[in-house]
Write a structure and sequence with these properties.
Layout (H helix, E strand, L loop, with lengths): L22 H9 L6 H12 L5 H14 L6 H18 L6 H14 L3 H17 L6 H17 L3 H14 L6 H20 L3 H16 L7 H17 L2 H17 L5 H17 L3 H16 L2 H6 L1 H15 L3 H19 L7 H13 L3 H18 L8 H13 L3 H19 L5 H16 L2 H22 L5 H10 L4 H11 L2 H14 L2 H15 L6 H19 L6 H15 L13 H7 L4 E8 L7 E7 L6 E7 H15 L5 H16 L10 E5 L13 E2 L2 E2 L6 E5 L16 E8 L3 H11 L5 H4 L4 H16 L5 E6 L4 H7 L3 E7 L2 E3 L15 E2 L11 H6 L2 E4 L9 E3 H4 L9 E5 L17 H7 L4 E5 L5 H17 L4 H19 L11 E5 L3
Parallel strand pairs: 1-4, 4-7, 8-9, 8-10, 10-15, 11-12, 15-16
Antiparallel strand pairs: 1-2, 2-3, 5-6, 11-13, 13-14, 16-17
Helix pairs in contact: 1-3, 2-3, 3-4, 5-6, 5-7, 6-7, 7-8, 7-9, 8-9, 9-10, 9-11, 10-11, 11-12, 11-13, 12-13, 13-14, 14-16, 16-17, 16-18, 18-19, 18-20, 19-20, 20-21, 21-22, 22-23, 23-25, 23-26, 25-26, 28-29, 31-32, 35-40, 40-41
Length: 996
Amino acid sequence: MLRRRVSWIVLLLAFTFVPLARADITAAIDALVPAEDWAQARALGIAALAEPREHDAALVALFNAVLESPADFSEAEWSPWIAELEARRRTEDVRARSLATLAAWRAQRAFQARERDAAVAAVDEALALLREGSGRIGAAERAYVLTSAGQIRGLLGNFAEGAALAGEAVAVLRNPRSMLERARRLRALFFQALFEDRLAHYDTAMALARQGIAEAEQFNVPNNGYRRRLVGVLSESLLSRGDFTAVRDLMRPELERQRAQVNPSARDLAMTLGHLAEAERQLGDRERALDYYRESAQAAAKDPALVAAGSYAAILGNLGSLAYELQRYEEADTALGQNLSLLEQQFGGDSLRVVPPLINFGEVAFERNLLDEAEQRFRRALAIVATQLGAEHAEGAPALRGLARVLLRRGDAAAAAAALQGAIAQQEAAAGTEHVQLLGWRCELAEALAQRGDKAAAFQQALVVEQRRNRLVASVAPVLGETQALEFKRNLARCSERLLAIAAASADPRQIDAAWSEIAAARGLATRLVAQRIAHAREHADTAARPRWERWFKAASAYADAVRGGGEAALTELRQELDAAVEALGESAPLQPLPNTSVAQLMAKLPSETALVAFAAGAGAAPSRLYAFVAEPGAAPRLLALGEVEALDARMERWYRLLREPSREQELGEAGQAVRRHLFDALGLARLDRRLFVVADAGVHRLNFAALPDGEGFLVERGLRLHGLETEQDLVGVATTPAREGLLLLGVPELARSDATALGRLRGNCPEFGSALQSLPGAEREIEVLAQLSRAAGRDDVVALKGAEATLTALRRTSPQSGIIHFATHAFELGAGCAAQIGAAARRGVGVRREAVAVPTARAALAREAGLVLSGERGRNGLLLGADVSTLALQGVGWVVLSACDTGLGARLDDEGVFGLRRAFRLAGARTVLMSLWPVDDAATSAWMEALYRARLVEHRTTVDAVADAGLSVLQSRRARGESLHPFYWAGFVAAGDWR
């Protein structure tokens, strides 16, 4: 991982001040300072310069304006003014203190021209005149000289002297008497805060920046540059502290204000974009961050001051490191190379300014396994920091960590552990214990300690990583949009592989308890936080929060309409608006932490005669292994290492593929035996004739263990009652809304030719499409039978919507009265490729998902849209998508039954689980979702559903028992009729959520 700490040093030019001879021109120019209206100052000054009585005052006023904004003047204009001013002062006294101001100006000019030696000499001259010269010098002049000297000293690497000189200037102007003096004080506060940040004194830096911001706001000019620069240095310290949401919230409105200007300052734009880029990067939206960095670099390149200060080079370094993370290697190499070359040219090879790029290049070499090159770069960076700041300074912590990684790869675990402990201590002293960067460092320390043989200490470090990761997600995700919340969590370093491996090997109940508690807390955490926010907004939609609810509802509907209509060009912008609307929902929702349930509390919620298996794929190390927590009645929880995820996934994939096809039964049996032997039997369950709750991970999401072979039959016939939990929290979640009694049945849609054509365009040109959406006689009969069965069971509140009545509008109207919502229709996946299907005309799906695909980003997971086909209305095809579903009010719905193909599968994102329809219905508030794992047969599905509802409504069975009874009923009926017993016909549906 490349170094992520953003490096910013923004050069803020100031102006000198000499007591003016005429109060009128002084007051006129002074009044323009807050708005930084230097063009008007130029016009006033030049007009006054032509008047003999105002010439002297105008000369000084114009010089001040030149110092503030050189771009508003030509060198031909200001050169004679400065020459005349200097000549007059030298005539008075060649060692006059007032000459220090002109020496400081020359230092600024030399520094911008990259003439380092000349700049240093001019600073020395200015300070000598100020300290030892004769005559008087005004407070504003003194502050200008001190701040300029501090600025250049600090930018050349002497942060301590830079901060001290700027602090002296702040003290000189403790009680400013003019707008000019107030501006000079703000400039000094800026540089003092900036260099305190460079010294890792973040609390001091933030206090100074906030003080300056408050003073700048007293100018009553909302967008003045003094405030913007102080906001920038505050953001710098917040980034160092890891408070990325605060930076984002600061910089977003700043960027909007600057973009609204006709000619925004390239300097301010570069700074704002750079800070916002780093915040977005750390919060998960790295593509947007890269765009911001590119724009920031373009703006910085246009400003000579930023080029001279090294800020442009720093931006290139951040751009290069992010491009490397995103595997944009050519762009990364170009930017990083320019970054290091510029800094070495400007500041020398031993400057602190070259430390960040050296570390970045060291990380690149390490990833390419060029260990000698990596070590050389890390050691050079450490030597520079030790010489300039001291061996224990936090500036060297990333280089020390990089060196530790080299040592660990070479097998020197003891030295690596010592180096990592030092790096972590340095970083924590500067940035606090919760900084996101430390998660990865601690996991590396856990690995080093484990290799050294100290398993207990390694376990503790890995546990700290998982605990702090969960705390970070819980505190940051509630104020982010959905995509960013998921990405923020995904980008945080994990150490679960090391945590699980040690706990499984030790069999220590305390370690197992601690590991399971954190794994359970992390599972689906970002999704649960989004669901909590939506639920709160839904419950308070009739209060002052209604505008936010309506914005989110409209954004979700607009996104779904664009997907439905194939409007791919607008999807990115609409997704961003939807994320922003979700983010806004959080502004009115109280941040109530989700319960952190201990293993003991989980076990107390397990029903009697029920076992629980929670699978967990390790992360943070390679190869990743699959583990399983096993809890059975009367026994302490166990943790088992089952094998490498890749190998187990391959076995699960083979069995799953064969389950989807009602043929090749011999191969199916062999594949099932392999899964049973390596996965299920390895659990060592004491009994199979009872309920088994499963929390899935990796490829387990696709499986129904009840269909595993058992001699001549299947495990369901041994009494296994299988139920899925999305997370362990499904055991303890308490519904706040009573379950409703109504039954809503929808399906068998009528598709106009235009609707079928529109859906066909979404699928592409597939030859099987024409027949795939034909009517489903089994689904039509299913709706009729379930309605009759429900009424016979004493439920009169039954609504059956078929054909043209089965629309999204009707669903919205009737769902608030429903306790069970049943869809009997086609499932549809957007963008699916054409694939031949055996008996496709009798199946309830088009473009079916073939597996729960693991995807690399939240954006990819959310983009894999699937839907249910309803009847079209008002010129819109009837495709019901996840974005539509999430806006429904389903908090009183006990069951959502998706009687269609592949409705339980979707994209899989790390420990957030499976996306798609199942997740959407849970976000909408449904307690349990019953769904399919493959392209189910129309007639067999109808029989399975009738058995399910008979068990539920007539025999009053729990969800877990009703699902098992339905599978057994169809299986036994097929056996009695001499039909195929292939699980395709009876094991395609599973339930997840509340088991009752």
